[in-house]
Amino acid sequence: MKKYQLDVPTPHSYTYVTKNLPNVTVEQRERALKATHYNEFAFPAGMLTIDMLSDSGTTAMTDVQWSAMFLGDESYGRNKGYYVLLDAFRDVFERGDDQKRIIDLVRTDCTDVEKMMNEVYLCEYEGGLFNGGSAQMERPNTFIIQQGRAAESVLFELVKKILNEREPGKTYTIPSNGHFDTTEGNIKQMGSIPRNLYNKKLLWEVPENGHYEKNPFKGNMDTVKLEELIEKLGPENVPLIYTTITNNTVCGQPVSMANIRECSRIAHKYEIPYMFDAARWAENAYFIKVNEDGYAGKSIPEIAKEMFSYCDGFTASLKKDGHANMGGVLAFRDKGLFWKKFSDFNEDGSVKTDVGILLKVKQISSYGNDSYGGMSGRDIMALAAGLYEAAKFDYLDARVKQCEYLAQGFYKAGVKGVVLPAGGHGVYINMDEFFDNKRAPETFAGQGFSVELIRRYGIRTAELGNYSMEYDLKTPEQQAEVANVVRFAINRSQLSKEHMDYVIAAVKALYEDRATIPNIRIVKGKNLPMRHFHAFLETYEPSEDEK
């Protein structure tokens, strides 16, 4: 068969809806910045040209998802979507290529009641991350929550309560390859110490000509540091070990299967539950498929199946790789290590207090019945459909290559500090290198960069460095673990090459004029938890030495 190869990529989608953008002047943006105290989260989105603050919930959903929303069941107890979503979890996280896709029974309006009872409503599952039927009632281990930080809050509040009851006043440490801001905030609020263990030297490395032949998995946990930390502190002082996939804090970099496997081995050697922050599970699976030996011939679901086989539980904001605008989950393995560590047992081995029951009570009291967990029925259906959309290779391939196009655009424009290769959901710039190492950590110049990008060009990004990650409030050990970066998050299925070229041109112009970018000081809210969401800031001129 002849192949008529072109030197341009084949299109994989159409855009059906257009959102027009307003014409906003620099003076109008200046007024809005002052009125919102230079807090980028408070700046009106309607005054932006391109919003790259976050890829969370900003997805342009597919036609398949929009159609699924019309099938949403808003019943309070055991709506149809509850069964569909739990089974979608089983499909994409546990079944690999052997999927049931019961969502198709709902899509075809199946009226065969016996079939629906046997294949949807009354199926029993146990032993994995997603119990079903009476097993989910007796030993609840899957909790639908409307977003990831809420799932983290439910988890860490309960873990804190259990640990404090067992040993009041004791301080614990929770290591990760890179806790994101909300995870770190929830850990701090439970009185514990978050640690980020990764290879910063590798992260900042830039290959010759800006290209790696294979992605070096810069998001990996430094397993030597992990084991040294456990030995130093004692396993009894490390209640959980986290791996974030992909590693958002460490510039969206992926984690290899080999590293996940080794982290799991170390955690289980010391009988510590191994957890995922799995917001970008599909993107991480893509990087494994494309870059890690032995995985090229495997599908995204097959790779995800192996990834999740190594963890004892996970939290996830499914507003990312659920390809949806709303959704989250907390799950742990049925009768697994997390369950054993945080449940209480009688002398005869019978269960005295099941941690899943406690989590379910917290879920219900804070977010709603376990059938919906704070989500509408239509959002549940959009998420269930979106999980399958996110696992498509062509979609992931286009998304990751869009990120790399932006990163390479910065690099070719001469902008210093671009983290290469790009991650799966955005592009990051090292602000220390961007400013020629002239700006001290306490000047929060990365936030100044973000503010100035809004003021001049109407582009909003996320400062995820010294300001957001609270460099000035950390110990010297923790300070060394901060990556002082600004993130350009790329919304899923939404932005075009035209958008990317505009951002490249704007950053190039700002880089060439970087001496004029203001520093930032915090005037209110310095010690607030997760301060970057609500602090008041002001700008001030850099000194001559800083220019």
Radius of gyration: 23 Å
Q: What are the low-pLDDT stretches, counting only 5+ consecutive residues below 50?
A: none
Number of strands: 16
Q: Helix tally?
A: 21
Oligomer: single chain
Main sheet: strands, sense, barrel: 5 strands, mixed
Mean pLDDT: 94
Percent helix: 40-55%
Q: What does this entry look like structurally?
A:
This protein has helices spanning 26-35, 63-69, 80-95, 103-107, 113-121, 134-138, 148-166, 181-189, 200-204, 223-233, 257-269, 281-291, 300-309, 337-342, 355-366, 377-390, 393-412, 431-434, 445-457, 476-479, 497-512, and strands spanning 50-51, 142-145, 173-176, 193-196, 241-244, 274-277, 313-317, 328-332, 344-345, 351-353, 426-430, 459-460, 462-463, 485-489, 519-524, 536-540. With 547 residues, the chain is an alpha/beta fold. The protein has a 5-stranded mixed beta sheet with strand order 2-8-7-6-5. A 3-stranded antiparallel beta sheet has the order 11-14-13. Strand 9 and strand 10 (351-353) form a beta hairpin. The longest helix is centred in the last third of the chain and has 20 residues, at 393-412. The termini are far apart.
What order do the helices and strands come in, and which of them pair?
Elements: H1 26-35, E1 50-51, H2 63-69, H3 80-95, H4 103-107, H5 113-121, H6 134-138, E2 142-145, H7 148-166, E3 173-176, H8 181-189, E4 193-196, H9 200-204, H10 223-233, E5 241-244, H11 257-269, E6 274-277, H12 281-291, H13 300-309, E7 313-317, E8 328-332, H14 337-342, E9 344-345, E10 351-353, H15 355-366, H16 377-390, H17 393-412, E11 426-430, H18 431-434, H19 445-457, E12 459-460, E13 462-463, H20 476-479, E14 485-489, H21 497-512, E15 519-524, E16 536-540
Parallel strand pairs: 1-12, 3-4, 5-6, 6-7
Antiparallel strand pairs: 2-8, 7-8, 9-10, 11-14, 13-14, 15-16
Helix pairs in contact: 1-19, 2-16, 3-13, 3-16, 7-8, 12-13, 17-21
